[in-house]
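Field notebook, page 343. I keep forgetting to write these up properly, so this time I am using the form the group agreed on. The chain and the ligand, zinc ion, are recorded exactly as supplied. Prediction of the bound pose follows.
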Amino acid sequence: MLAFGAVVCLHFPQVLSSPELRPHYPMALIRVLIQAVIVAAIILGVMSAFLRRKKLLGLTGMLFALAATLLGGASVPINETLHDGPAIGLDWFLLDMLLMTLIFSPIEVLWPAYPKQGVFRPEWLLDVVYFLFTHLPIRITSFLILLPAVQLTSVLGNARLQAAMASLPWLVQFFLAILVADLAEYAIHRALHVWPLLWRFHAIHHSSKALDWIAGSRAHLVDDLIIRGLMLIPMMFAFSQNIITAYLLFVTIHATWEHTNFGPTIEWLEPYLIFPRFHHWHHTSQTEAIDKNFAIHFPWIDKLFGTYYYPDDTWPDTYGLHNEPIPAGFWGQTFYPFRSRGK
Ligand SMILES: [Zn+2]
Ligand SMILES: [Zn+2]
């Protein structure tokens, strides 16, 4: 499906590729990548069709690879001069999906916390749809978050504080940025849980019955905007754009990793940095851990505020919401928070 999407992007680059990414593409390399994904889809499709009882996945994969080839494959020329303007930005979804799958899926298959949970668990496609929807509007999200953020930096930014911060070593600045962001994220995340109006939105993120890296992307757009938007405000007082961008990259990787079905750990580091088992306890439906572990990076922030729950070595038995029926589909979940509760 990634290869098919990429070939469609080659056919309609003006509409489907992101203007902000276009200048950075080494096209020769991208074409090799597309060809490699097509070949991989066919090889993996054949293997899957042989090994799995259900043939649907393997055949679907091969069908998409075949369709990508019939549409011209990796060698489709780009015939138009591209100009800035509104675009859907399918390329960003495809690239990030490929990258995240390559990073996280192998470690989940090799060292799972729940070995019985497959990569293609129930509802995996729903979470791909969430991943798609959070990536397509790269323009909208950057417009809604980054643009006001840049504007606000000039208003909120404190020149003396910024100068003092800039004089520190880069790594120290980066660490302080994670600290400030996580304190903000702790407060926002806790508010999302305790304020019923906000919980309606955040409940969607907690509706996953099983966790893996892609489950982390299941979140209502409003939930995403609240967390990402508000978290940036305290950062803008003191940090440079460069540090904030580095932090945004870090939080994407760390927050995704916390949702992975990945067992191994580094025990001495666990008290200082959040590992998947910590955030998994945040997602459990077991009463002992409800409304615990709100931090995203540092577990000791929860200790500080009395919301820490981390039993030795055990993983939760159940995930999701026990007494809140959330609709199953993407659109049902999108409209769910806006529906009146009735009696
Ligand atoms: Zn939560
Ligand atoms: Zn989560």
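OBSERVATIONS:
- The mean pLDDT is 90.
- The longest helix spans residues 27-51.
FOLLOW-UP: compare against the apo run.
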